[in-house]
Each structure stands twice: as structure tokens, then as C-alpha cells.
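Newbie here. two chains, one complex. Structure please?
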Amino acid sequence: MGKTNIFNAFFLGVEDLTNKVVKSKYNPFYYHGALPQFIMYILFLSGLLLFAYYVPTVDNAYSSLNLVNAFTSVDYITNKIPFGAVIRGVHRYAGDAMVVAIVLHAVRVWFTDRFRQYRWVQWISGIVLLIMVLFIGQTGYYLIWDERSLLLTRMTVSAFDSVPFIGESLKHWFMNGRTITNLTLSNFLFIHIGLSFTLLFALWIHYVRMTRPVITPPPALNYILMAIVFAVVYMVPITATRMADLNATPTMMDVDLFFLWPYQILAAAGPLGYWFWMVVIFGALCLVPLPMFYGSKPVEAAEVVNDKCVGCRLCSLDCPYQAIEMVPAPAGSRFKLLATVKPFRCSGCGVCVGACAFDAIDLPNMEDAEVTARIKQLVEA
Amino acid sequence: MGEVKTVITLICERAADLSSETGENGHLASQPGVKVVKFPCSGMIQPLMVEAALSSGADGVIVCGCQIGDCYYREGNKMIRDRLLGLRPPGLKKADRRRILALWLARPQKDRFLSEAKDFQDYLTQLGDPAKPAAKAPAKPAAKAEAKPAEKAEEKPAEKAEEKPAEKGEAKPAEKAEEKPAEKAEEKPAADKKSEEKPEAKKSDKKKSEEKAESKAEGNGDESSKKDDKKDE
């Protein structure tokens, strides 16, 4: 059975070329999961700074000279606060970078075959994380409260309204009332920030089945990423827009495809078509790990030889997938701890076998005693 | 020296793809003397297996895993590398570490493996027969790379000839050892030239193996002092 296919080979080839240019410690392909994590920190920090000056209201009585609402507060940040435009640009483009980084991460995970069997929790939680990130970005676009925001809000309301049974409630939840008011915008702010913090919880699930997940790119890569973001911020300044007017009906304008591609679908296919496509796309993504699509042989989990285990914990510490747990040794044992394998988390890699100095754990189809015998046999052959 | 050196290769299934070269008995067709044992992951390799190979008469052992940073099972290659370097238990006990070569190769790098295996066999030919157990200096636990110029200065000129294949033009020992007093006592300085040169030779040869390893993997900055400028050829 081939362990690789053409896509995997493509990645390996590209990564090999990259390894010739930089050391593998700095190869960005090996940090495809860590880069979105770092970008999240950039977003949290820049978002915090924007939050300091943002006002979530929609009032736009033109007669007032000192009008303070969401749009004017964003305008104030962009034009009056020193480096406000930079922070806003960083927040916006780091968000786009986040979507790009997540998609690249997912692509590499898929093509290098790291999503199946014992890794399914990571894949499904990754899909959930992607949906959350997309929605957070969309609420970010509503918060500016310009014409585009109003259009997007109305489109979202119509999409929610079309959901059977719960559509009406969803719509009222989303608008925080029956119409768009100040409460709506403070709801958007709550969703934007609250869901961002919920990302941390979802990330915990994403990481929980891995020991020592790689979540920190080397500083050099972080600097390069920041430099790219700043370069984009200066080269592509955010264009000014017009304040939303609840009495007007704005039409479709330039949209940021990274986050707003669902709205293109919504505009093209209508609300029901939109839900159909969203369910199909994300449902298909969730089904990717199903074994029926990839004829992989079932994992034969490692097995502990209970009488030989001394409870040294090395297998448990070394296991890359949190599949070995130390439990109190049975009464009458000389030792305090006993290793146990959780078979559904086991990948069959054998790192535990390599860690054990007491011959107390084995892969059922490849016992280390057999291997050692084979090695000796080969030497003498 | 026409004798073919026996090299046992412990390789993982997802590293360099040798299946086209390997006969059913595990012998490499294109490289006589090299025999291959496959594992699902290089992390499964026990240092005991490496020692078993050497003590039953193999001239050398190649341990081959995926590129550092790209283990299919996340950490297996780092695990075996740390075990071989003595950074992680269990470790090597009595093996002559000059005879162990660690390679971190991606799947398409079969040719790289073959050329490294050939170089390794040439090197083993120069090393001569495996030393008797009493004369072998024990494996030293390796600290992270700290250059030890003082030890390097102790090198005898005679070693240089032996180390030429090992040297890649850098005069830094590989990793360094906390020399345990117990281990020093085991060396038999007078009788066996090898044991004295072993610390340096071993360092430089382990360095050689690490350099080889790192020159492929440009691995982990942990051992980076010697390979700051090493690029993959």
C-alpha cells in the first residue's frame, strides 16, 4: 500500500526545496498549525487596541456635530489616533492572513494524510474553528457600520429568516430585537469578542489529543509574518467608506473574499441556496475522515505487558497522541503505576515501544523481541 | 580492504522509500552489505536494537527517519534522535557511537540515502573491525552543542587521518559530553589508542553523523552551533 500519493509527494518535494534554502527548523511548512495560532495573538492584541476607542451605536442624526457612533468612532481611530490606521490595517489584514493560513494548514493536513482515524478530533474541531473564524470576521465587517455593513447585515437577516422553524428566533437573536438598533451593534460586538475568546476553548479541543503540540513558530518566522502584514497595511490602505443610512438601500460593492465569500453565494443563490451550499460544503469537510473514503488499514493498538511494566512513565510521556495513561498499579504490585493504552487514540507508531527499556509494551504485529531477533539474523546472514 | 561492511539500516516506512531497492530478504540490491529493517515510525527504534545490531557483529547501523519537523506521527524522529544523543531515556549504553549514523530523509530522498550509506560503508572500512568490548569507550550522554575546543586540541595527528572522512572542514566536536568519572575510568588509555581518540573521534564522528543528519534536515537548532551554516547540498 503506497504511503503517499501525488499530492503528498508534491508537498514533500516543495518542502525539500525549502529545506535547501532554510534549515528545517525554519521551514514554514512545518509550522502550518502554529502560524494561525500566532496570527490569533496579533488579532487579539490589535483588536484590544481598537476596542478601546470603538463605540457600538448606530445613531446617525445628521444634525449633531459631535456625532458619536460606530462609524465615526472607526473614523476617529483611523484618522485621529496616532497609528490608529496602522492598528486597524493590521487587524484587518491579519484577519485575512488568518483565513489564508488556516486554509493552507487544512490543505497540508489533508494532503499529508494527517486527519484520519486517531486524528479525527483535530480535523472536526478544525472545521468548527474555521466556521467560527469566518463568522468572527464577518461580524468584524458589520462593526464598521458603513454601507457595506448595513447590506451584509440585511443579507444575514434574510438568510437567518429563511431557516425553517427557528428562522424567526434566529433573526431576532441576531438583530437583538425586531429591527436594527443600537442593541444590534452591541450584540455584534459581543459576538465578535465573545466568539474570539471561545476560539481558545475550541483550540483546547483541537490540541487536546496531541502531546506537545507545535504552536509557536520560531521568532524569525513570526517577524517575517509581521513584516508581511505591515507591508500590506502600508501598500493597501483601507479605503474610506460611507456611513450606513438605515433609510437607504445600499447595493453590493467590493467584498473581501476571504471572509465574505459566503455572501457572494448568498447573493447568487438566495437564502435557501445559501444554506444548502453551506451545509454541503462544511458537511463534506466533516465527512473527510470517514474510513470509507480512504481504505486505510485499521490501527493495531499497542498493548502493555502488565507484568513487565514498572511504571516509569516514559511511554506515556513520549506518546504523541495522549494514548497512554498511567493508572495506579494493581494491589500487590511492586510498582506504583501501570501504563494503559487507550486504543482509539493509538496510532500504531511504536514510539512507546522505543521508549520502553523493560520490554513491557508492544505493537501486536511487530513485537520488539521479534525485531531484535530479525536484526541479529540479518547481521549473521 | 575488499570486505563488504555490514550495515543494518533501521528505517521508518515513511522516510526514504527503499522498497524498490530492497530484496525480500531485506538486503539492498544496489548496496551490498546494507540490510534494511522497517518500522512504522523511527520512534519505535529502541536503542537496545541498535546495540544488539552492533554487538552481534554489524559494522555499522544507520537510523533513518523522516525530516525533523515532519514526522508523520509527529514526534517519532525527535524521540529517537534524542535517545541516541542521550537527551532522553532510554539511551545507548555500550555502543561505539562512531558506528551509528542518523539520517533524516523525506520519502523521495532514496538516492541521498544510498549515497550516504555508501559513504558510511567507506568510513567503516577505514575504522576497521569493531573493537573488542573492553576497549570500546562507552557512550557519553550528550549535552547540547557546546564546542569543546580544549578537547579537540588533544587530538593526535594520527586521528586526523581517520577523521578526514568524518570532517567536513569544521573543527568543532559534535555534542558534548558530560564526561562521567566512571566512564573515564573505563577507558584504557595506554593500550588502546582508540579509547583516547574515541572521545574526540566519537564527537567528531557523532558530529559527522549529526552533520549528515543535520545537513539533510537542517534540524533542530538544539545542536546548531556546528551547523549554523550548513546547508543541504
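Moderator note: Residues 6 and 332 of chain A are 54 Å apart (CA to CA). Chain A touches chain B through 51 residues (CB under 8 Å). Thread marked as resolved.
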